[in-house]
Amino acid sequence: MPDKRRLFGSLPVRLQAIARLVAGSVALFSSAAVAAPDFQVDTATLSNGMEIAVVSDHRAPIVSQLLYYRAGSADEHDGNRGIAHILEHMMFQGTSTVPGQEYRDTIASFGGRENAFTSADATSYWQTVGREALEVVMRLEADRMQNLVIDEESFRREVEVVKEERRSRYETSPQGPFGEAVDAAAYLAHPYRYPIIGYMHHIEAFTIDEARDWYDRWYAPANAILVIAGDTTLAEVLPLAEKYYGVIPAGVAQTRDRAVEPPQLAERRVIVRDERVRQPSFGRSYLAPSRTARDGMAPALTIAADILSGSTGPLYQGLVVDQGIAAAAGAYYSGDARDWGRFGVWMSPNRDSDVAVMEAAMDALLEQILEGGISAEDVARSQNSINSAMIFARDSVTRLARLVGGGLSVGLTVAEITGWTDEINAVTAADVTAALRQVLDRRQSVTGLLLPAEDKSL
Description:
Shape: globular
Largest sheet: 8 strands, mixed
Mean pLDDT: 89
Helix content: 25-40%
Order of helices and strands: EEEEEHHEEHHHHHEHEEHHEEHHHHHHE
Number of domains: 2
Distance between the termini: 36 Å
Number of strands: 13
Low-confidence stretches: 1-38
CATH topology of the largest domain: Cytochrome Bc1 Complex, Chain A, domain 1
Strand content: 15-25%
Structural class: alpha+beta
Strand order of the largest sheet: 1-2-3-4-8-5-7-6
């Protein structure tokens, strides 16, 4: 299923802190391993260019395999929006050697779980099984990389499945079209403006040749990252990776040519009125650098969102507790994309609140925060919270694999993933205040208002 970015979510987004990883990327069979306080990571590169990262965690006899392809919805073009997601569906339809349901049945026979997700920047397939089934899932996934069968009957069937998915997820409630309208307004040119699943007219127009072309272009070792987490080691994984993945031709490493977002000099507003809306909602997001910008803004914005989104933070205390005009309020920062990120604020009104009054109150409160700055005490409290999240991240081997694979798939280096908590802990109150003052610029914002149909006040 598509891993939809939460741009105007109903809950604040507290980004997961990435637990410290230590590793080096080296040639096949010449690898490095360094013990980290939390867990160990080993990396290697196969001769066909496929990257491998192994996160060892021996507390339970389970493993997770995640295979990332550096191909997401933002790599599509105007004629095939949504094709990355439809190909994700096709990957479960069988290969020339493992037909139909056999893939799922085989994993289920080991008591395992499997699924996939498509994002704007990557497509990933994962399985979590007992360690004794590691070779089985590696064999199955390598088979899907090279032997997928895309026939007309199964393709048309999955097109209908995706059409129904779009109806149920995005078209049966006002929040779906509203979120898509906000996304489209947030970016003037960059493909992050398009929904990952595609618009309905895109889905209806898909051809089987487009799916085959996408598979042939992107699904190759040169565009793939294999992450294994759990009760195993690189010494165990590497021979299996060579056996199953290493024999696949490298393919062509694809360039990711995306439209450049021009400077944004005018704020935008999206107002959607719908008869199904009972309570209005307000959200505003600002274009912001992601971690890959490497400008030092991401750790400061992560802390800023954590401070502003908490129940003791200024938004909740000011709008909910003090003024009583909102039932909830918070902030979020989505900085894990390959290109642009978003920083946002939101609030849910009380039953009798006027949206225009709420927006004015939010504006005044943000101005007050920018003038007064963020306190050192708030920063320290947030750093402690994020460091705690680092510990909780170790509870799931699948989460560990996603922390590593997600960073690598958008272009972060292992060293950058490794140093994330150090960056967080180095942030000062002055850094957070400066980041907010730079990002909270109305000229690079989009304000979204979802209103009842009868509300004509704006």
